[in-house]
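Task: sequence design from structure.
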């Protein structure tokens, strides 16, 4: 019975690798993702499975990818949005809101150490990633911001608890060791106490 499941599991792995890739894959690239197996057979079976559906598995120049069925391409042409690259200031502001929400503009500026341009907040709101979450009950009653369900969906998070922690960020190489060392010298280290004393 297990022998009957292996081709299905391998085919599913090939399908998943192609679906998750942001660009067409060669047989060699697919093999790096799924290992050795009958990739040609899996691709032929998948191409048959997807024939006549809204998306098709196609090969172009030795590379495989999913594409919209030709007779449905007009649907996507009308609704296609051009993705906008988020600036560094935008990413920093979004991260601060995600980790500290609800947070006011003044609190974002205190954390970043620079003034937040109004356009930065506007871009994040246009993307649907943040929303006004009321007003802080302090003098001036500043507007406070929080993330939205679209933010969670876009970044593949179930909830804010799924945001990467300090250990995850260190492991991914996203924290600059020089900045972390300088923060430690200022007595504001973002790291927990290291038992090795490093």
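Answer:
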């Amino acid at each position: 019975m297990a022998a009957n499941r292996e081709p299905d599991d391998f085919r599913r792995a090939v399908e998943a690798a192609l679906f998750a890739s942001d660009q067409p894959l060669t047989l060699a690239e697919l093999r790096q993702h799924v290992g050795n197996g009958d990739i040609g057979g899996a691709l032929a079976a998948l191409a048959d499975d997807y024939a006549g559906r809204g998306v098709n598995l196609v090969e172009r120049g030795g590379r495989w990818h999913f594409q919209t069925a030709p007779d449905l391409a007009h649907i996507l042409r009308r609704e296609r949005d051009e993705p906008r690259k988020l600036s560094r200031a935008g990413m920093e502001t979004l991260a601060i809101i995600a980790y500290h929400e609800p947070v006011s503009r003044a609190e974002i500026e205190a954390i970043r150490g620079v003034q937040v341009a109004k356009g930065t907040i506007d871009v994040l709101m246009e993307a649907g990633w943040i929303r006004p979450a009321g007003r802080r009950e302090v003098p001036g009653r500043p507007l406070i911001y929080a993330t939205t369900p679209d933010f969670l969906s876009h970044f593949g998070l179930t909830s804010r608890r799924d945001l990467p922690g300090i250990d995850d960020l260190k492991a991914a190489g996203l924290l600059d060791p020089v900045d972390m060392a300088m923060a430690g010298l200022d007595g504001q280290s973002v790291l927990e106490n290291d038992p090795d004393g490093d």
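The first helix runs from residue 2 to 20.
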